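Run folding on both entries below.
>entry_1
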Amino acid sequence: MDMFDNLSLGRILADDTEDNTPACPFPKGRFPEDTPLAMAYVPFQMWEKPYEADVGLSRGTIFPSIDKPFIGEEAVKNAHTK
């Protein structure tokens, strides 16, 4: 039984098509099939060589793949001076 079978929208979409297949199928992606609705899900992170402790402390993470610096005001300030 699909987790969306009990939803009204799923039944409406199925009734609107001649061949009785959903007009707007729910995507199949990286989520496990039994993921409950409205439940937070964090994808698996592949292991990688972490930063050294001092670099990780200054960057806010020890993982290079999630090192996404926030530049916020710096970007706005720099845009006004150019």
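>entry_2
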Amino acid sequence: ASRVEKSRAQSDRRILPSWYYRVHALRLNEDREENGYDFDEDLSELEEDSEQRRDAEQLKEEEGGEDCECGGKDLECDCQFEDDDNMDDDESERSYEGSDADYYYELKEEREERKREKLQERKRKDRQVEIERAKEEEVRAAYRALKQTEEGQKTIPIESLAGQGFKLYCSDHVNHFYHDIYATKRVDFYHLDDTDNSTDNPRQNEQTPGGETGMLYGDVYLDANANCGFGPFRPPSRASRKVVKVKSCDGKYELSFMFIGNGYLKLRVSREMVFMGRYNASPPVPPPTAPEVFEFAGIWRDPEKERAERQERMVNIHRSPSPRESWFEMNHPMGAWNQGW
């Protein structure tokens, strides 16, 4: 056989990438519905290696070198065959004609769709990380202001925490837990029973130095699998860099609060709490990249502002589009949006 035929025979034996065999075996051996998550294992590996690949490609371009010493001229060289991840991805026509060709190209189309989904998810995650970092910096600025206030022998009073809630922000948490539906992290404070005036609760009418009635409790929600109640604890009357440590209601975890004042706080919890897996049969093992302690930046939730924002969103959802927002005006080359009117 000629070298070209030999090369083609070698290509035929290696034409199908490793992800195909893995997903095919997975769906063959497991009795369940098919979904795009089946492709995530190898796509995650590609994601992790993408930066190294870009660096290597950039280095080759800068050095003006070839991908291989043979310069791509030796048909029997291994460089003639793309790696599993890129194999056959750039071909516009079906080059594989095996008995399972239809199934292969069906899976390939599913995989491409999943790659697009993960790309969009990555973009949303990056945007969320930017938001969280901006909020973290806002709380750090409040902390610096508190430090200056204390150094000037002044204090910042804290209003009653009962019935108040704070949104929590943490870029580390986003990096480890972001998914399609990333819920708002929050902490809420309350009296155990504001309406109970009976003598069953001996602390009900206890006054703290700041004027709070009774001890406070709270709930912290990080995600669907990491949430708990905590307390009781005595709320502070003034902002301070002193840490207030509170136990979770089950006694398993310790929450360290720093009440900065002016609607800001910090919360530090162990990674064991963050990865508690409350509704899992067994808690997940935190990855080695996870920090020992997660620090959350808390910003007061303004009920009136949130209510106004919700109403504005509802109005925007139900309002009729203007003539300039029709499909033609927004998408057609002759539409107003493309004409710059």
